[in-house]
Amino acid sequence: MLNTEEQRVWLQDIEQRIIQKLDWVSDKSKNKIPYTTVNGVHDDRSVENPSDTHADGINWWTNGFWGGMMWQMYHNTGQEKYKAIANISEDKLDAGLQQYYGLHHDVGFMWLPTSVANYTLTKNPESRKRALHAANLLAGRYNPMGEFIRAWNDISGEDTRGWAIIDCMFNIPLLYWATEETEDPRFMQIALKHADTVMKTFVRPDGSVNHIVEFDPFTGDVVKSYGGQGYGEGSSWTRGQTWGLYGFMMSYIHTGKKEYLDTAKRIAHYFIANIPDNGIIPIDFRQPKEPTFEDSTAAAIAACGLIEISKAVELHEMDLYLKPALKLLKTLDEDRADWTTDCDCILKNGSAAYHAKEHHQSIIYGDYYFIEAIYKLKGTDLYFW
Ligand code: GLY
User: Fold this and answer.
1) How far is the CA of 5 from the centre of ligand 1 (A)?
2) Is the C-beta atom of 166 inside 6 A of ligand 1?
3) Segments of the chain assigned E as strands
4) In angstroms, rounded to a whole number, what is the distance separating the alpha carbons of residues 328 and 347?
5) pLDDT digits 0-9 by tens, 319-329
6) Which of 343, 337, 338, 364 is nearest to 352 (CA)?
7) Model pTM?
8) How many domains does the chain have?
9) Which protein residue has the closest C-alpha to ligand 1 atom 2?
10) Tens digit of each residue's pLDDT (9 = 90 or more) over 144-155
11) Residues spanned by the domain of 106
12) Is the alpha carbon torsion for 253, 254, 258, 264 positive or negative?
């Protein structure tokens, strides 16, 4: 996939650095499910901590990524310890299925990188059962009048029965998987309806996407859009753009529907046109010049999506997508990665949301998608989306 010797040397080198880093970090954090780091040390979202302000406990939406990282490492190194650590995460998530409350559309983010990854590699029947359980929960959130999947449960003071969000494009692959696994078409029918609704109501004429669209939950009519985790209404939250970009590619990979590839390309063209010269991705492409908030996670996810598009297009179009992907990854490597033993994370300067209290922290899905992107370039990523 890479054209020059210099690029190939870089890829070999960065893979070695990932292997070296994950070797000791995985030992250190093997009993945790990390989200971020505190003074360089992974936190643990698998323990209920009453002093934490997050309310989701074990059902925190990012709790699948650590397991996903371990499966990518197992797949690429063959080291049994990674499989064992991934299994610890997956077992812990059972408490979430049992609790039920707190689970929402992000069951895809939670059980694709854990149970579906596990089942893909090992055919473990317990993993299949967990993933099917999660797929049924996701399918149960479908609103047939609006033809969308409801995103979150109620947020205090906010009625979210009609809310759909762009991030769900990463959850619906669980429905494609469930149909592929059971031959029951209902799951895929729901995924297709949702993707078609998102194509019509989220993607703007310039290729940018809304974060949240609210539908009337009784009539299905579009009510309004929200800026969500971006700067404001009508803005362009960069991670949301990447959920759309790579998300539509995922739908294309499962269905072969050309409209999904075309939509991924439209979002990609908008994204590429807005990459700043220095390769650092802001939290929102339409945020004010100051403060200069950025989000390394958006860069890593975009790189994954762009590499997938480059694999799906004609040879003469490949570089259009591959070049910016390499620029994003090289910038992350040179300017935003910590390869030392000072931090359990790889990427610095992730940001959950423009209006969040904290910015520029390590976030587990930044590291996950960075690793996935590097293995995609090598052609050896484990694809479970
Ligand atoms: N899926 C929520 C986020 O991207 O922060």
Assistant:
1) 36
2) no
3) 37-38, 41-42, 142-143, 148-149, 163-165, 212-215, 222-226
4) 13
5) 999 999 999 99
6) 364
7) 0.97
8) 1
9) 167
10) 999 999 999 988
11) 5-378
12) negative
